[in-house]
């Protein structure tokens, strides 16, 4: 069990300020990732993102860290649309924190199955090391836990669980984080991704009322 220190809480306040106020917080995060803080827990969990590869087809921007910085910048442009910008921004930063532990290369294909579930638990551990604020942490954790539902719901995959998702999170917040996630790629198609989010919303509203 990790114990929160005053120095770590200071890092929370500094990062939080940049996440909520910078037009491109990814630039600040990129700078601090070069420093000694990324050699200390819990920031070692973010450092691992730099070393984690992704599918070149879906993520030509490279590592999970490169993708994360793009997602954070996208979220900064849309944080005013969120009912809780602080939850959205920290979820954007930590949404793929589970990928280092789940990424595998199988037959030339890079996958990260269940990184949403693993990431939710790691995000809780990360945030508890910085801050004693249980309710806020759980909101961030749940958003990370359900952020892959957009893919599952739109593609009618068996992992889709609309009813459980809607019990824990606001689907509009999932959609907002999901849009940032999908736009945080160097080969993005904005119109196509926005359409995907609309399909997710429509199906979640419709199917959530059935049965």
Give your account of this protein's structure.
- Helix content is 62%, strand content 3%.
- It has 211 residues and is mainly α.
- It has a single domain (6-207), classed as Hypothetical protein af1432 (Orthogonal Bundle), CATH 1.10.3210.
- A hairpin with a 2-residue loop joins strand 1 (104-106) and strand 2.
- Helix 1 (6-21) runs antiparallel to helix 2, helix 3 packs across helix 4 (64-78) and helix 4 runs antiparallel to helix 5.
- It is globular.
- The N and C termini lie far apart (42 Å).
Q: Look up the CATH topology.
A: Hypothetical protein af1432
Could you give the count of β-strands?
A: 2
Question: What is the level-2 CATH architecture name?
Answer: Orthogonal Bundle
**Largest sheet properties:** 2 strands, antiparallel
Structural class: mainly alpha
Pfam family, one: HD
InterPro entries: HD/PDEase_dom, HD_domain, HDIG_dom, tRNA_CCA-adding_enzyme
Keywords: Nucleotide-binding
Protein name: HDIG domain-containing protein
Summarize the topology.
Blueprint: H1 6-21, H2 25-32, H3 44-50, H4 64-78, H5 85-94, H6 99-102, E1 104-106, E2 109-111, H7 115-128, H8 134-146, H9 149-154, H10 162-168, H11 171-183, H12 190-207
Antiparallel strand pairs: 1-2
Helix pairs in contact: 1-2, 2-4, 3-4, 4-5, 4-11, 5-8, 7-8, 11-12
Keywords: Nucleotide-binding
Protein name: HDIG domain-containing protein
InterPro entries: HD/PDEase_dom, HD_domain, HDIG_dom, tRNA_CCA-adding_enzyme
